[in-house]
Amino acid sequence: MPIYNKLVRDGILTIIEQDGLRYHAKTLEPQEHLHHIQQKLLEEVQELSATTTTKEAVEELADILELIHAALIRYETSFDELEAVRLTKKQQRGGFEQGIYLIDVEDS
């Protein structure tokens, strides 16, 4: 019997049941849920870094975005609020589109 001990998408238990399998699961408390969202984000980012095709990368990015939406619920923040913060930071510091890689800064 495989042991997972990880956060899964909401529809996974239905899929497991449809496959005629049994499972053990629980609903996490809000703080525990947030912790596992954070852990799952790390997992998904590692999976993104291992992708070799655009299709795989987009699949992992979709998982990351879904986790961001779940985290926003736990932080009691909307996606619009997140987007406003993103745009403010982009206006103040720029984005990451140009691929600038800082090597060092000379001390004065």
Give a short summary of the structure.
With 108 residues, the chain is mostly helical. It contains four helices and no strands.
Architecture overview:
The chain has a domain at 12-80. The chain has 4 helices and no strands. Helix 2 runs antiparallel to helix 3. It is mainly alpha-helical. InterPro entries: MSMEG_1276-like_NTP-PPase_dom. Keywords: Hydrolase. This is Phosphoribosyl-ATP pyrophosphohydrolase. GO terms for molecular function: hydrolase activity.
How are the SSEs placed, and which strands pair?
Layout: H1 12-18, H2 30-49, H3 54-74, H4 79-93
Number of strands: 0
Round the Cα radius of gyration to an integer and report it: 18 Å
Q: What overall form do the CA principal axes indicate?
A: elongated
**How much strand?**
under 5%
Provide the succession of SSEs: HHHH
Q: Which assembly state applies to the chains in this document?
A: single chain
Mean pLDDT: 97
Largest sheet: none
Low-pLDDT runs? none
Structural class: mainly alpha
Helix content: 55-70%
Number of helices: 4
Separation, N- and C-terminal Cα atoms:
61 Å
Fill in the keyword field for this structure.
108 residues; mainly alpha; hydrolase; Phosphoribosyl-ATP pyrophosphohydrolase; MSMEG_1276-like_NTP-PPase_dom; hydrolase activity
